[in-house]
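Two folds, back to back.
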Amino acid sequence: QQQQQQRQGGVEYHLPPLAPNQTMDARRRRPNGQGVVGRDRRKSLDRRSTASFDGASRLRDLNGRLAELAADQNGSRHIQHCIETASPSEMLDALGELQPTLYNVMVDVFGNYVIQKLLRFGDASVKETIVRQMRGRIPELSINNFGCRVVQEVLATVTSADLRREVLEELEEGDVQRLIMHQHANHVIQKCVTTLPKNLLGFIIQVCQENATQMACHLYGCRVIQRLIEQCDPQQLATLYENVLLDCESLTRDAYGNYVVQHIISHGHPEHRTVVMDFIRGNVMEMSKHKFASNVVEKFLHHATIEQLSDLIAEVCMRINLPDGTTTAPLHVMMKDKFANYVVQTMLECAPCEAQYALLEYITANSEVLRTYNYGKHIVSKAEKILTSMKR
């Protein structure tokens, strides 16, 4: 654990655990493929750099060995500290020294924090110098574990319309679908969505709406769609909404797709929730017993109209014939299910008065039986809390 902490380059970075049969030397392999950094050299650099550090040091005092120090944990931190009080001219001098190896610094486990710091504290000229040096390598940086952080910082800190356009043009000219579905680059695309004007997001929206189901069911693709739903108006995403809802039934049961449907319920228009209602109506019990679809049902209950709530509650209270030949209300089955019991609890919270009284009456009448079930006990407890609050 101590070795792992020593390899961290900043508070935001955490090393993944060692893979089976992986040594610490294997972890020390540089991201740019330059090979393993030897222990002796690393320790020697730590001692030498630490001995020369002084709280009053200026960034210019480190000239001549910035590239070496940026690749060292202590060196990187000290450079970052000096950047906070450095003048724009000092920062530009530092970038001039780093220019031959600037890409390697950007993709370095420690060096990337130095570039991020320059972007945060530098003026327009510093930001422009960095972006110019990234020209032609934005997609390449975006798929790198550490380089993607630099690109995100550019999107967050650079305000020049021209520079932003350069970054976006490179992303747009690349394989946008691959970037969206990449474990590192997807964070860059999400940052585009959360920081850039909506009118510049067309290239991301187009790829998502053309591959709506595939994206929604993908670990990283679903995150990008969720950010779009959060940031953009439903009118701007009309085609994306339509394509997602066309496959609503399967997406509600998908490990990732269900989150996209939930976001449409939360951020969409009433007509979008009506489409979801049409899929839930007649399938409340089956969906509520499903690990992922139950989350969609709960989310819908929180945003449903009184009429929709009444219809769904009436459905679960109506007696039906079960496959084993018995007759009972879906509500009774749901209260004993490990997923559906949470839907029943949400129904109790959201139900209009008349429907809530009906639910409470049913639960109270069957409380003794429900207490014998692991999940039924939760329902009884919830009902008792609601009844107690009513008496107050």
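---
second:
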Amino acid sequence: QQQQQQQSKSQPSDGGDVSEEEEEEVYKDSSVFLKGTQSANPHYDYSQHFVNTGQRPQNSIVDGNVEVRFQHYPLQRDLVRLKDALLKERATPPMYLKTDLKTFDLASLGSEFDVILIDPPLEEYARRAPGTLSGDPWSWEEITKLRIDVVAARPSFVFLWVGAAEGRERGREVLRSWGFRRCEDICWLKTNRARPGNTKTLEGDAIFQHTKEHCLMGIHGNVKRSVDSHFIHANVDIDLITAEEPEYGSTEKPEEIFNIIERFCLGRRRLHMFGTSSTLRPGWVTVGPDLHSSNYDPETYADFFKGPPPATAGGKALNLEQFDNTLVGQWADIERIRPKSPTGGGG
């Protein structure tokens, strides 16, 4: 084949000498891509590129980083900036409680919550990195026994991290047992730019290499996008997170999941279960066994929501005259530029 290429280069075509354009059509720098592929353009064979280099295809996603994602979309950029500024104005101080969730009575928190984020230490994580969990993994039967019903307001949302294996089905069953209806599936595509090729392993019953995880979103009660804009703002973010995979054995999740939740649901009462000291965040109550200390007090937390809501935040009107202080509220400029849902469909 090489001899034929050399001969074809040395012999002129019917039209005379070989042109520079014809020479440029011959691939000269794709040797690492060509092995084992029949792609017409091997430069874009990301699967083969992963085999050769360990760089996952999602590493090539442009503007996947949330810091630069909206730089060419000024309205979306301004919306995110305004929402983040309002959330900062209305956030409660971080509160946290170190406790064993297998024995803790969630009702003793003394509050219902508008959003509950749950990140249990799954058995899948123990299989993926044996010996690295700080405690024993939780089975799906144990997760099901969590009394989410006693802390879930109506309406409310739950976000449940379920891994990439059996949790995608078992997680749906758990949501139903808690009285939630699954309505979305947020997918985290794990990039590995910093450590390419470090996870070329398969779980025992896996067919493909797992480079993603899922977070199921469930709803308790009824919420309509077109009429409940005091409680939810739909279509601000997408259901895909592109973020670097943490170090081996770490179960840490991307911070972007918090941003998605906060910009979507305007309820101020937020609970993070199985959080750690590194995930403490304004506006959230964090509970779990891996915290270093506790500062949660039910009466102190309840005081944050007593009385009528303020008329303004950050010097701008909140438009909460008809509602209570458990809501974030919204500024007029947010309402002006946020995506709207049609009012005639009832969805």
